[in-house]
Design goal:
10-stranded mixed sheet; 21 helices; globular
């Protein structure tokens, strides 16, 4: 148990939000697929450790508060039978590799100690996943939500970048409404909050959120500081849009402490080095059974070195030293929040709220000790003697006076704060194609409105709607700009658009091929309850509440 010095009574609030999202990657047409490892690594290194944190906090009756955003694509993949089966195979292969490493390092005690650590790590993951939660991690999150300490929220259906989809009101509504419907189906409740993909906001978006039953959303710092009129309390209190939906802004200081490549905690020399992995360091013959097709080197999750520093040779990883540093950094994080609150409180007519949103995958995957750090932070902030209280943004709205009325500024949390990372010379070619497909879909649905649609036609239209949503994911243009798996991102977009165009043209020509349609339904089986009729833009707009700040991009 982490202990802290005695503090005065609570004077302000801290809200930590983790956004858990991965793009929809599922390839039943292949025996294995490299990009499916994104999910398997995140489950092993992030989601299961996070569940472990929540389980321990619950067992110790720690009165924490945490918000977790689960994207609809991630929700769907976590519940997918095929991916669950493949994940178990992945875990067993990692356990086998760890055993192999224990034998290989028998004359290297320090390395063998780490190999044994990884065997325990993978064994615990298998026990939690298979035995404790029977492969259903959503059950674990729902269990903790039921305690009132974990608030679950969601985001757009496929994490579509809404400011650039806003040429079509229907596209934005479809992303938001499908996302919320998916959350309700799997989690059994409606979310009060909404994570805007990439924190991408444009004035008028709050009208669609309000129609979907959303109370609050998040924007980056300048979305609040550049709001109109200028908020009195900056990012340390929410603002209310004209329709009452609240916007919370990201605190730059707490963000910098975790995210900054130079100042952030994860870059400390004592932490585990992410980029040092035996998948790239061992002989190919040795590692072949555990990499892609026995030829393409990939991360295995077994890493023996710490960050060290600069261009120095990497020292061997010391888990005890790293955990001690995570505790130290947790205390530093809380102390800095207390100092912030002390400075803010005197000038505010309400307790300040420090909003600290992060990608969930940082904690454990990119920053191996991140889950330990998070647990320490939650324990420290939950102690009665501290001057900071953990809270969810929904509870803050309920407890505090009405927020100041203002309209956030158009903004994202991407590089330079706007849309440049999602539309640039590397990816701008996709948007005319996305917009054309969206308009073709809307016209198709309008044309069949009031007509008898056969079951086969209905399936085709629903699958066309899925294809559009999948093509709209913000992940693909992001990857094109970042230059990582560019070929795969290009193929995802072109494949989804080709599937839509095939379905659209086949429907128009009355030449639907049921066998091919069934194949598409098997490959892209997300959103089973989708209804193409939601693309009837005339009926959508009939229920649309006009907003003075609504605009088209």
């Amino acid at each position: 148990m982490v202990k802290s010095v005695s503090r005065p009574a609570r004077q302000g609030f801290l809200s930590i939000i983790l956004h858990a999202h991965l793009p929809y990657v599922r390839h039943p047409e292949h025996d294995s697929f490299f990009e499916e490892n994104w999910l398997f690594e995140a489950i092993t290194e992030c989601y299961l450790p996070l569940i472990g944190v929540l389980d321990r906090l619950h067992a110790d009756n720690v009165d924490y508060r945490l918000t977790l955003s689960l994207s609809p694509t991630l929700i769907s993949m976590l519940r997918d039978d095929l991916l669950q089966t493949r994940y178990l195979k992945y875990l067993h292969s990692r356990l086998e590799l760890a055993e192999k490493e224990i034998i290989r390092t028998r004359r290297q005690p320090a390395y063998q100690k780490l190999a044994r650590l990884y065997r325990r790590f993978f064994s615990n993951a298998l026990n939690t996943y298979q035995d404790r939660y029977q492969g259903d991690l959503l059950t674990a999150f729902k269990k903790h939500q039921a305690t009132g300490r974990l608030e679950l929220i969601t985001t757009a259906a496929t994490h579509g970048f809404l400011p650039l989809l806003n040429v079509s009101e229907t596209a934005v509504r479809s992303q938001i409404n499908t996302g919320i419907a998916t959350f309700k189906t799997y989690l059994g409740c409606a979310p009060a909050g909404f994570w805007l993909p990439e924190c991408g906001y444009y004035p008028g978006l709050e009208a669609v959120l309000a129609d979907a039953g959303i109370r609050y959303f998040f924007v980056d710092t300048h979305g609040i500081t550049d709001a109109s009129p200028q908020p009195r309390h900056g990012v340390y209190a929410p603002i209310a849009c004209a329709n009452g939906v609240a916007a919370f802004g990201r605190d730059p200081e707490s963000s910098r402490q975790v995210w900054s490549a130079k100042e952030g905690y994860p870059g400390d020399a004592d932490y585990r080095e992410y980029y040092s992995d035996i998948g790239f360091e061992r002989e190919l013959d040795y590692i072949a059974p555990y990499i892609l097709d026995g030829k393409i080197r990939i991360n295995t999750g077994i890493k023996y070195h710490r960050v060290t520093g600069g261009n120095q040779p990497k020292d061997i990883y010391n888990p005890r030293q790293a955990r001690a540093k995570a505790h130290e950094h947790a205390r530093d994080f809380i102390d800095k929040r207390l100092r912030q609150i002390d400075q803010l409180r005197a000038a505010m007519d309400r307790p300040p709220i420090i909003v600290a949103p992060y990608d969930a995958e940082l904690f454990g995957h990119w920053w191996f000790e991140g889950a330990c750090w998070l647990e320490c932070v939650l324990r420290l902030a939950s102690e009665n003697a501290n001057g900071v209280e953990l809270i969810s943004c929904g509870d803050y709205l309920t407890q505090q006076p009405a927020p100041q009325a203002a309209t956030p500024a158009a903004s994202t949390w991407g590089d330079e704060g706007y849309s440049g990372y999602w539309i640039n010379e590397a990816n701008d070619w996709i948007y005319p194609l996305l917009h054309k497909a969206e308009l073709d879909m809307e016209k198709l649905v309008r044309d069949v409105h009031g007509l008898t649609v056969t079951p086969l036609q209905s399936r085709a239209l629903n699958q066309a709607a899925r294809s559009i949503l999948l093509a709209q994911a913000s992940d693909w243009p992001f990857i094109m700009k970042s230059g990582t798996t560019v070929d795969y991102a290009n193929k995802r977009i072109t494949d989804y658009l080709a599937r839509f165009n095939y379905l659209h043209d086949s429907f128009r020509k009355n030449r639907l091929n049921e066998r091919y349609l069934t194949a598409l339904e098997i490959m892209d089986n997300i959103f089973p309850d989708i209804d193409f009729r939601d693309y009837n833009s005339s009926s959508v707009r009939a229920g649309f509440k006009s907003h003075p700040y609504q605009r088209k991009a």
